[in-house]
């Protein structure tokens, strides 16, 4: 099943080119349930919600093209991200600075966190700051955690997954720590919807592409991950307790490139769906 959030915090199920509104069903399923101390209540109760939703064909719907897609996960306790997790990306970044010693790679660097306030959905777009500096896209496969877990093994890791989606780990280049440069508002795009794990037999066998203004930038496959999905969950849960709705950015493939206001980033993935994200110049809100 494909769950989305859209418009004014509505919940929907995507079927073909339609979004069926299941907000009332979700609210009823969550009514009276004690919210989790950490994490996302919708994801924590996903099994019960799926059972309650059932057949959506008779539910009210809107054309998918006519809704504003938000992040399918509203309240993760944290955004966990993997650096340098494709050999080809490691090589392309090293080629930019041949005078520098090679990086430690994911085995030596571990993971990092992005601020939750950076999270947006594809319909909200990326609002670029520091226009005098280089800002680049990194389209990534994303894991959404479904159950609380800590110190899980790779062998049992997928038992704790709710589903998967796409993500854009936007990055402004510079000398600051990675987590600062990647945590700017709107620099964590999650979408277009949450595909429940039963629809994806092997998360380490997924291809995806990114185009900017129609020109291809990423042509990637999760089979090329250095630490695969199970290993990433094992690593993350060795440091943190993971809660329902927590997300893991699995790392940038080769092909990272610059974006500027007015650019349109279009992701393609046969099983996770298409995702269009527009780039804007950041405007400070009026007082």
Topology diagram in text:
Blueprint lengths: L1 E5 L3 E6 L2 E4 L1 H8 L10 H4 L1 H8 L7 E3 L5 E2 L8 E3 L5 H10 L8 H5 L2 E3 L4 E2 L5 E3 L6 E3 L1 E7 L15 E9 L1 E2 L5 H4 L6 E9 L10 E6 L2 E7 L7 H11 L7 E3 L7 E2 L5 E5 L6 E7 L6
Parallel strand pairs: 6-17, 8-14, 9-20
Antiparallel strand pairs: 1-2, 1-5, 1-14, 2-3, 3-4, 6-7, 10-13, 10-18, 11-12, 11-17, 12-14, 15-16, 15-19, 19-20
Protein described:
By secondary structure, this protein is α+β, with helices and mostly antiparallel strands. The chain has two domains: 2-69, no CATH class; 77-281, Fumarylacetoacetase-like, C-terminal domain (Fumarylacetoacetate hydrolase, domain 2, Alpha-Beta Complex), CATH 3.90.850. It is 17% helix and 32% strand. Strands 1, 2, 3, 4, 5, 6, 7, 8, 11, 12, 14 and 17 form a twelve-stranded mixed β-sheet that branches. Strand 15 and strand 16 form a beta hairpin. The model has no long low-confidence stretch (mean pLDDT 96).
